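Thread: Newbie trying to understand structure tokens

Hi all, I'm a second-year student working on a class project, and my supervisor (Dr. K.) asked me to get a predicted structure for one chain before our next meeting. I've only ever worked with sequences, so writing a 3D structure as a token string is new to me. If someone could post the tokens and maybe explain what I'm looking at, I'd be very grateful. Here's the chain:
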Amino acid sequence: HSSLLALDPSQPTSTQNPSTGGSGNYLIGVGRADCTGPVAEIPLMGFANADQVGGGLLTRLYSRAFIVAEPDNSKRVVFVSVDIGMVSQKLRLEVLSELQSKYGELYRQDNVILSGTHTHSGPAGYFQYTLFWITSKGLIKPSLQALVKGIVKSIDIAHGNMKTGRIFINRGTVENSQINRSPYSYLQNPASERSRYSSNTDKEMVLLKMVAGNGQELGLISWFAVHPVSMNNTNHLVNSDNVGYASYLFEQEKNKGMLPGEGSFVAAFASSNLGDVSPNTKGPFCINTGDSCDNPQSTCPVGGAKMCMAMGPGTDMFDSTRIIGQNIYLKAKEVYASASQEITGPLSSAHQWVNMSDVSVTLNATHVVKTCKPALGHSFAAGTIDGVGAFNFTQGAVEGDPFWDTIRDQLLGKPSNETQACHDPKPILFSTGEMTQPHPWHPDIVDVQLVTIGSLAIVAVPGELTTMSGRRLREAVRSEFESHGTSGMNVVIAGLCNVYTHYITTYEEYQAQRYEAASTIYGPHTLSAYMQLYRGLAKAIATNTVQDLPSGPEPPLFNVTSLTLVPAVIADRTPSNKAFGDVLQEVRPEYRVGEVAEVTFVSANPRNSAENATEHNFLTVERYINSSGSWSVVHNDASWETRFYWTKGLLGQSNATVEWHIPSTTEPGTYRIRYFGHYKKIPLFRPAVYYAFEGISSAFKIINL
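---
Reply by user tm_fold:
Sure, no problem. This is what the structure looks like when written as tokens:
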């Protein structure tokens, strides 16, 4: 690794406040809240695969908030990591407006970072720009509301439990958990630059450990670059993927005896420069022949690009999620335990809105280049080895396809010559910057944001930087601080923040036009523009001139119609002679650890629950306690060991199946599974009414082997 990744022991200590003594340098608050939303019939956000809609729940989604304030409370910053694909502009603007009505000017666009973990298994439907609105099947109010509510609640909890405390930083190398999924693009970068790094992915995890003055452990934030796509595009269960599983393991360990989602310790595993980084470590193979398809086009001799898929290390996607998540967790545990370098010093935050379709970038004394109106290239439609596209598109396309171009011209209009020239060598598939019906298809106005906590700088990026793009941006910010007399800054990239703008490749990677480059929507100079902009923010913080930064053009908030292709929830019905919650397929009388207990109930649409009870729990696994004659809950629907499947039948009938994958740590004894739902009745000429119900399996025994 190059020197810029090394820890710098020369911490700025002059700003330390001696009056706080050993108890801490900051006020720190942490909070976690459920933001799961509807788990059925809603498209999942990430792979843009129309067939991939929710059909149940593997693990809950959470918003995890961290507030750091100066001891005299004069300045504060907020970092929120949310178990979703990305933060959208609409989501951010709604959260900020809620915060303003609650807290006035305390939490603002400059000092609140909202970052998505980038799981591809969370509900969609919270976007205002038309491209995402289409892949989400519309604006889905319950989805958006669950996110706004969950994020604000996590900040409320953190705000309400501020304590004097200390922050420590540490780093470690995570092995066997990622591959570069566009190695041919990476090789376009200059050899002299590549030779400074030992790998074509960033294996380094940066971790912040937060401890209260009284010694109570509060939480952690880890930044590590990997795509949370261990769960692939055939999955229908809402879940937080590999990084979410790492959070789950750390929180379960620290909140002993608590159910998932409970307990005061908060562990966020946040996204970083993961643009070209896959967790599917076995690499790309042709699913029909078993041959490798690690070639510049990621294509197979038989069946083309559609057959080229990367596999994770496990026996199936659940197992791969577990393995990668556990790798990340185990490294974090080690890095957390040995964290001793303290972060001290003042807090700062800087933010600007920028019209990214029109930035002039000064490359050197003689060269000024420009960004472009947003557009997606042909290879965007190819997808990646983590999730292939629907048609015969391949990655690395530098020429258009007459067939698709003709259809595009007829349906959506032809890209202008100016936009085509600006994006060269990208053959444009969708000229989204020139598509404005019913609303613009892509954002022009984008957030750039930088927050510093002492010697730590968090660069909040509105998209997915590739490995080398992230390295260049970190270095640019670090050297900018250095040139203004602030040396030894620890710079981390926080990904998927504030507004989604797809990918950001280097200029050299852009020339190869694989998926990430085709999805670099503001053209070949996107990264250079961001480097210039974030340098500007770093300079303002380093020279204490943040107040002079122009705030830039405000983003629009469209009145997006609630029209959606998601089916309406009709009245729920039961089969004849059955009631809601009745058991259709019973558990067996006994199981051994390692087996799967399974029970199927007469159910109702789970969307009723999302709309009527926030943080609704669909299931419990309970153990019978002989001494008290009562049942005790050992797992809920957020537990990794439980899976909730919902199957829609005809005319309002449906089934729910609960699986419990019995872990080896399970104590022998008597158990049962309970299911909780709401059914909807629509009386004549009156509003719908919802009724809670539950189902209980027979008791069953778990015996030792």
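A couple of things are worth pointing out once you decode it. The chain is about 20% helix and 30% strand. The longest helix spans residues 317-337. Feel free to ask follow-ups in this thread.
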